[in-house]
Design goal:
246 residues, 10 helices, single chain, four-stranded parallel beta sheet, elongated, alpha/beta
Length: 246
């Protein structure tokens, strides 16, 4: 299973990166360790009412297909995982981890606990539960929406790539907020519009889309192919003007 790291990195294989011995040692030393505490419906409701946040650590495609309502997506990778999350959810929030793999759940919990987070337990995706989905737009679908004039009506394209990537090329009419600035600048987005989120990778755009949806109440859509996919499809982009200085 391949997961991309945070901005500027490409895909790596992380299946064998889980620090199993370190995780088990931490569990044996910490009697308050709760990542293996399964929360039933009643306990889950109580913990959520107390202010905990659902964190879905699965791959974004799985999150989009079905997730617990209110959960924020941040696919697990051991590199700076807690630091990445802190930009969206501060350490003052207790977390409930959602994952399909016990080892992935324990690895994410261990990384988060090292970053100062309290893990209240974990929740399972019951097949009988009513799951939410994340709307997906292909670049072709997005182009069709733009062609009908929806950018002037009820659609907003948000590009969350880093500034250098944005300056290199971007969609004409898109709005730019670097991913790590989204929490503090979310209020700049136009209310009453569908926010179509684009990034360098599906992982990043899914995180932002889930955050805007559940933390700020925006109606969102995710564009999995991202800005690179848009460019590869041959659709119009605005490129960086050449430097004519001699």
């Amino acid at each position: 299973m391949a997961i991309a790291i945070w901005p500027g990195c490409r895909q790596v294989i992380f299946s064998d990166w889980f620090q199993k011995d370190e995780i088990l040692f931490a569990m044996s030393q910490d009697h308050t360790y709760k990542p293996d505490r399964l929360l039933n419906d009643q306990a889950l409701e109580q913990v959520l009412q107390a202010g905990a946040t659902l964190l879905d650590v699965r791959h974004p495609q799985k999150y989009a297909a079905g997730h617990l309502h209110g959960s924020i997506s941040l696919a697990y990778h051991p590199t700076n995982y807690a630091w990445r999350l802190e930009h969206f959810i501060t350490v003052q929030h207790s977390l409930i981890i959602v994952s399909e793999s016990p080892m992935e759940r324990q690895a994410a919990a261990f990384s988060l606990m090292q970053g100062g987070y309290n893990i209240a337990g974990y929740a399972e995706l019951d097949s009988s539960a009513s799951l939410a989905t994340l709307r997906q737009l292909s670049v072709v679908q997005l182009q069709n929406e733009i062609a009908t004039g929806r950018l002037e009506q009820d659609l907003m394209v948000l590009d969350v790539r880093e500034k250098g990537d944005w300056l290199e090329y971007h969609l004409q009419g898109a709005y730019h907020i670097p991913i790590l600035e989204v929490p503090e600048r979310a209020g700049e987005l136009l209310s009453g519009r569908i926010v179509a989120v684009m990034a360098e990778s599906n992982i990043y755009s899914t995180t932002v889309a889930s955050y805007l949806r559940y933390m700020h109440g925006y109606e969102v859509a995710n564009v999995p192919e991202g800005v690179p996919g848009w460019a590869r499809s041959g659709f119009a982009i605005k490129r960086k003007e050449p430097d004519n200085k001699s």
